[in-house]
Amino acid sequence: TERIRLILGDQLNPSHSWYRSVDPGTLYLIAELKQETGYVKHHIQKICAFFCAMAGFANALKTAGHQVLHLTLDDTHAYESLPPLINDILTFTGAGGFEFQRPDEYRLKQQLETMQLPDGVSRTIWDSEHFLLPFDELNHYFKAGTAHRMETFYRKMRRRYELLMNGDEPEGGQWNYDANNREKLSQQEIEALPEPLCFANDVTDIKARLDKHKVEYFGSYHSALLWPVTRQQGLQLLDYFCQQLLPKFGRFQDAMTCQSETKWSLYHCRLSFAMNAKLLHPKQVIDAAITAYRQADGAITFAQVEGFVRQILGWREYVRGIYWLNMPQYAEKNALNGHRTLPKYFWDGETQMRCMRESLGQSLEYAYGHHIQRLMVIGNFALITGMDPDLVDAWYLGVYIDAIEWVEMPNTRGMSQFADGGLLASKPYAASGNYINKMSDYCANCHYQVKQKTGSKACPFNALYWHFMNEHRDRIARNPRIGMVYRNWDKMSDENRTAILSQAGTYLADLDSL
Ligand code: FAD
Ligand code: SF4
User: Residue 330 burial by CB count (10 A; 0-12/13-18/19+): exposed, middle or buried?
Assistant: First the structure.
């Protein structure tokens, strides 16, 4: 063996230039590791999905004629971390070169770039060939410690990659059609919701190995894993999205319903795991959606496809830039001094707040919540109750199928907790029960009363929202977009304001009981 090439669990990109030719001197290493199961407590489906996708990828490489060493926890359990394992393999095989693709997580990048290798072994770092924006050009678009706005970045990306453009002008005349995308689901629309396309990947062996090696996990276990774990399954899901879901993607992007036990992902694509594990390339997904739009002959409106492209070409690439230009300091940021611990319902979903029960319950059942559940229900609750961003980050990194730090942390610590003080978003995404009521049918089915701010049945989001806004007034009121909110607060009588703050105090004193 001349060289060892390490493939991490989120680097399962079958189109990488590594695989263009078969070289008997190259040994590809894919390893299940305690280090990767243990850096936070994970949802069982997340571990199963990565391990299952890694095994499938190893088999596909073998079938294509490559030399592959696929190690399971049975082989690697004695290694607490990756460097000693790599060193032992390098020594054992006598390989003179160690190669890897630049990890997307700061922790792993540091580890692989700085680890000691046996004498005489060279280290070569490759690009992962996944993102649209090259890693070395991120600093042309982002500056450390500086506030950025997604919309500005997104326009540059549309121009640079000539996507949905008419020459130099945006197709349709407008850059962003978000204003058309804020509909609530009517009863008729709820009935018309399609069911998610689910796979049935057998993960019983993986679960047995996790138990044998005492790996800690949480969330519901399904022996038939429903997530796509091969490129082929990813493509099937992409096709399903383009045909069945794209026509209403944007319209109901922010909607939520508790009448969706079997239809839990609404019109969302659920491709985040396939993309984040690099089974699918983001450009491939964008191109498929644009093609479906063009072929639909008017049956899909422009706002739907623009909204979808914006998520991937805009948001996904944007959060990556914020992450890399600000790490490792970003992981320490706590601009609003959050310090509370997560209530127990984050782990079991047992709460009387219907919106939280549905959003947490679904996250625990499927390792999935869609954007508005993550941002405006769970994240909003953590924000207005002043949770410790380290704990919030760890929970998000553990629970979601698609959670990898480069995308999880800017979304959680930045967008949803405002702990970065506004590097990523212009204002905190704090909202009272009114917003949740506008976008869902949760409130109609809740123990609490969404219209009430005080009293034993008052919706906790109301008093907690005002408590948060009042507590952080100095910082938040500087934002001209929020001035109006404080005018409303100031218009209330002293008595009212005191009663609301006292109600919030009662809730904050015992969050577990909500
Ligand atoms: P859809 O709603 O169908 O969107 C299409 C695609 O757009 C997604 O697959 C994703 O690749 C991309 N996208 C949309 N919004 C974002 C965004 N804000 N940032 C990056 N990509 C985006 N996404 C992750 O991939 N991993 C995470 O760990 C993660 N954590 C989040 C934590 C919080 C607090 C919030 C508010 C959002 C988080 N997101 C994360 C972003 C987004 O919620 C998920 O990408 C999305 O819900 C995945 O489901 P989907 O594939 O059905 O997405
Ligand atoms: Fe959530 Fe309040 Fe509505 Fe209940 S009333 S579902 S707690 S927003």
Answer: buried
Is residue 179 very low, low, confident or very high in pLDDT (cuts 50, 70, 90)? confident
Query: Is the per-residue pLDDT at 395 higher than 90?
Result: yes
44-63 and 204-212 helices cross at what angle (nearest 10)? 120
- What confidence category does residue 339 fall into, taking pLDDT thresholds of 50, 70 and 90? very high
ipTM of the prediction greater than 0.90, yes or no: yes
Q: Which of 365, 364, 368 is nearest to 401 (CA)?
A: 368
Who contacts 254 (Cβ-Cβ below 8 Å, separation ≥6)? 181, 182, 183, 371, 372, 376, 439
The three-class DSSP label of residue 58 is: helix
- Rounded average pLDDT over 311-329: 98
Residue from 311, 322, 408 whose mutation best tests the ligand 1 pocket (most atoms within 8 A of CB): 311
Mean pLDDT on 236-248: 97
354 CA → ligand 2 middle, Å: 6
User: Which CATH superfamily includes the segment(s) 3-126?
Assistant: HUPs (3.40.50.620)
Element (H, E) at 29: strand 26-31
Polymer length of the chain: 514
Instruction: Please give the CATH architecture assigned to the domain spanning 135-326.
Output: Alpha Horseshoe (1.25)
For the chain, the structural domain boundaries read: 3-126, 135-326, 345-513
HSE (side-chain half, CA atoms, 13 Å) at 207: 15
461: pLDDT confidence band, cut at 50, 70 and 90?
very high
pLDDT at 187 over 80: yes
- In the reported structure, the alpha carbon of residue 222 is separated from the centroid of ligand 2 by a whole-number distance in angstroms of 30
At 314, is the secondary structure helix, strand, or coil? helix
Level-2 CATH architecture, domain 345-513 = Orthogonal Bundle (1.10)
- Mean of all residue pLDDT scores within the chain: 96
**What residues does ligand 2 touch, defined as CB less than 6 Å away?**
353-355, 433, 436-437, 442-443, 446, 448, 450, 459-461
Q: Which residue(s) pair with 410 in the sheet?
A: none
